Amino acid sequence: MFDKHNFSPLMATKTKTSAIRSSIIILVSLFLFIGVMLSTRFRRAPFDINSILTDTTPTVSLQPQKKLQIELNCTNGNLTNTCPASYYPLKFTNQNQSNSSSPTCPDYFRWIYDDLWPWRETGVTKAMVMSGKNNADFRLVIVDGRAYVETYRESFQSRDTFTLWGILQMLRRYPGKIPDLDLMFDCGDSTVTKTKSYRLPNAPAPPPLFRYCGNNASLDIVFPDWSFWGWVEINIKPWETLSKELKKANEKLKWSKREPYAYWKGNPYVSRTRMDMLKCNVSEKQDWNARIYKQDWIKEQKQGFKQSNLASQCKHRYKIYVEGNTWSVSEKYILACDSVTLLVKPDYYDFYSRGLMPLKHYWPVNNNDKCRSIKHAVHWGNTHQKEAQEIGKAANDFLQEKLKMDYVYDYMFHLLSEYAKLLKYKPAIPKKAIELCSEVMACPAEGVIKKFMEESMVKGPSDAIPCNIPPPFSPADVHSLLVTKEKLIKQVESWEQQY
C-alpha cells in the first residue's frame, strides 16, 4: 500500500542530493572555463599586478579648496562712491591655512619693535595720536576690519592715494585679522619727530607718526612707500610687475658683458649731494669711471617715458644710489639690477634697507669724496670680478626673495598689529572720516591710475597666514650690528687710501 508519509522524506533527500551534485558540476565547469581564459590572457602578456590594481581600484581625487577671488564690485559704474555692505568677508579662514607652516619673516622685520620702542612703556593714548595731526596728511582708523580716512591736506602727487590703496589691499589679503587702530600718516620726505625734542625734562610724549623713512635723529615710524603699488607721475609700475621685468632684464645681459662703469640717472636738483655727484661725470680732463645723466621728467613725460624704462637700465656693471631730498624710492630699483650697487653713504633708511650689509649687498661710497671713491670701487670690481658679481647677486636675491610683495604685506600686517597693541583706548570712527575701500578708489579712477590699481589689486584672501616675526633685537644685538657695519665701511675706506 502506498504510504505518502513514508515516501515524501525519502524523495526529498534524493532530490536535494541530486541538486547539490548538479550545482557542483556547474561550478567546477565554470572555474575551469575562467582558468582557461586567464591562462590565455597571461600567456599573451606578462603578469602585471599594478595593471590589475589600477583596473580594479577606484581612484579617489582630493580636490584642493578653490581659492576665493573677489572682483571689484562697481555696480554703479564709475560713479560709485560707497563701499559694498557685505560682499567681502570681514573674517576669513582658508582650510589650507591650518595645514601650512608659516615661514619666519626676514630679519629686517625685527626693526618694527625698535620703531615702536618709544611707546613700549607708556602705550599710545588718543592725545598722543592727535598731537601728530599738524604734520599728518591723513588719519587712518580701522574698525571691525573696515578702513576710514580723514584727510587733512593734499599730499605730493599721488602718494596718499597709493599708500591708502596698499593698505586696503592688505586688508583684502588678511580680512578680519588687523585689530582696530587709529594712526596719523605723513606722506612727506623729511622726518619731523625729532628725538632731541622729546628727551628734554618735562617733554611731552612723542606723537606716533607714520612715514616712509627715518633716521637716527628721529622717532618717525617707518612704513612701506606708495611706489610698491605704482608711481603714476613718472610711469613706474607696481613692484610685483616691475621686479619680474628687472629679473628678466638681468638674465638677458650677463654681468661680464655689461659696460664696466658706474651708472646713475635721475633728478640732481633735489639735493646738494646729487649736485655734487655731477662733478664725477666723465670729461675731457678726467674719467672717474662714472656715467652720470640728468633726468628731465617734464620732457620725459611729453615723450611718453620712452627713455625711463627701469628694466632697460641694467646695462652697467655698477649702479649708483644717492639720496634725494631724503631717502629715495630708487634704491630698490637699483639694488634689483644685479649690478654692484655703489651706495653713497645715506642719512636715512626705509623699512627694509636696515637689513642690508656693506660688502655683502652693496659697496659703500664716501659721501665726502664721491668721485675718488666711485673710481676706486669700479677699479676694484673690474679687477675682482667674481667677488663683485657676488655682491650684485646677493642684492638682487635680497630684493627678489625678501622684498617680494608677500613680505611687504606681511611687514604692514605686523607693524600695524604691534602698533594696535599699544593703544590705550578703543578707536572710534571720526565724524569727518569717510569709509574707504577698493571700490571707492578704483571704480571711478581713470587712465594709468586705474591701470596700476587693477594691476596691483589683491584678488582675494591669502591661502597662507603671515610669516612669523622674529624676536626683537637686544641692545647688544643692535650694538654688534652697527659696529660690524662700521668696520666694513672703514675697511673700504682704508683700501681707497691705499689706492
UniProtKB/TrEMBL annotation:
Q: Which UniProt keywords apply?
A: Membrane, Transmembrane, Transmembrane helix
Transmembrane feature ranges: 20-38
Question: Which Pfam families does the UniProt entry name for this protein?
Answer: Glyco_transf_90 (PF05686)
Domain (Glycosyl transferase CAP10): residue spans on this chain: 177-426
Kindly give the SMART domains that the UniProt entry links to this protein. Answer: CAP10
Q: Which InterPro entries match?
A: CAP10, O-Glucosyltr/Glycosyltrsf_90
Q: Which domain of life is it from?
A: Eukaryota
Name under which the protein is recorded: O-glucosyltransferase rumi homolog
Q: What is the lineage of its organism?
A: Eukaryota, Viridiplantae, Streptophyta, Embryophyta, Tracheophyta
